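PROTEIN DESIGN WORKSHEET
SECTION A - STRUCTURE
LENGTH: 240
TOKENS:
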């Protein structure tokens, strides 16, 4: 049940859901930081990400976690990509970049951040020791030094321009992940496939990040398989 909420009403809306007997909720942009602030208890990864995307209401307490990072890793693995194969070039420095960079660093992967607004990447790197930062204009030149390219910007999303990057510079073993999931295959994913690179489209991450919340709310763990992928894809693409 999608529930658009104005920023100023976020707290009231969440407390209302809990009071109305809901088991919990997912939270998306722009409310993940507000959700973090609202929780009575926050899981360690959410604390590291500074943001909460999964709420569980339990005995008058609000428990928060952030499943974006683990969902990202699970999707890579399901797509046959080893996240630990080598350094990762993460484009973007928003909420999703922060969650993804944190789990990659925790897995021992060297992370390079590259964002249009350089100051934002530098600020993120200051919160995640171990990340290096390069200029947005240096992304093509940096590609050969990385085993994984991750687009966490909104470029490539319906209504947004495509991400401009020269995949011809990538090593043939480089994998490409795009967390944008509308369209299901972004221009970046299509280009990576044309270059013969391994790819991880964003819908898989969306499904995997939803698993822990679903399990907590309904007491059953869904399998992320082709049937679920097709079901959610059809719903996403259905005219509203
Ligand atoms: N698949 C999933 O499960 C999943 C989960 C979370 C998010 N997402 C998707 O990931 C995307 C980012 O989410 P977010 O929460 O991180 O958003 P956010 O915090 O608003 O960050 C947006 C990022 O995109 C960059 N950007 C926007 N327009 C740009 C442009 N024209 N050129 C270059 N960079 C541009 C921003 O750069 P500046 O700092 O320069 O503005 C920033 O780094 C969204 O499309 C969201 O739907 C997917």
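SECTION B - SEQUENCE
RESIDUE ASSIGNMENT:
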């Amino acid at each position: 049940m999608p529930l658009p909420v104005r920023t100023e009403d976020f707290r009231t809306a969440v407390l209302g859901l809990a009071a109305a007997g809901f088991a919990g909720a997912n939270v998306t942009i722009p409310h993940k930081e507000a959700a973090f602030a609202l929780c009575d208890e926050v899981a360690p990864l959410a604390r590291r990400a500074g943001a909460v995307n999964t709420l569980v209401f339990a005995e008058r307490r609000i428990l928060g976690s952030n499943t974006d990072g683990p969902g990202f890793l699970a999707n890579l693995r399901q797509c046959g990509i080893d996240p630990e194969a080598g350094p990762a070039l993460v484009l973007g420095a928003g909420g999703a970049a922060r969650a993804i960079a944190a789990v990659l660093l925790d897995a021992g992967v060297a992370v390079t951040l590259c964002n249009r607004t350089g100051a934002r990447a530098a600020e993120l790197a200051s919160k995640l020791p171990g990340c290096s930062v390069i200029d947005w204009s240096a992304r093509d030149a940096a590609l050969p030094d990385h085993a994984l390219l991750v687009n966490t910007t909104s470029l490539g999303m319906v209504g947004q321009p495509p991400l401009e990057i020269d995949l011809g510079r990538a090593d043939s073993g480089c994998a490409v992940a795009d967390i944008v999931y509308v369209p299901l295959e972004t221009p970046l994913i299509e280009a990576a496939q044309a270059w013969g690179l391994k790819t991880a489209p964003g819908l898989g991450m969306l499904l995997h990040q939803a698993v822990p919340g679903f399990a907590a709310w309904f007491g059953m763990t869904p399998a992320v398989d082709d049937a679920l992928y097709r079901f959610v894809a059809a719903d996403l693409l259905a005219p509203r």
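SECTION C - NOTES
The beta strands are 24-26, 41-42, 54-58, 61-65, 88-91, 111-114, 131-134, 148-151, 175-178, 198-200.
Residues 14 and 25 are 8 Å apart (CA to CA).
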